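Write out this protein's structure.
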Amino acid sequence: MLEKIKRFLGEIKSELKKVTWPTREELKESTKLVIIATFVVTLFVGIVDQILSLIIRRFFGW
């Protein structure tokens, strides 16, 4: 059992050496993109929610 764990951890170490990690600049740009995309999607969902709420209130006369 211990031998399997050691082999498994060795394989993990080997695979992590193959990974191409992003540079600091790439990471910053990706983070900015995620924040902007989140803001845009939130804005879109908020607008759609307000429109649907208005339609439902008018339809049911609330």
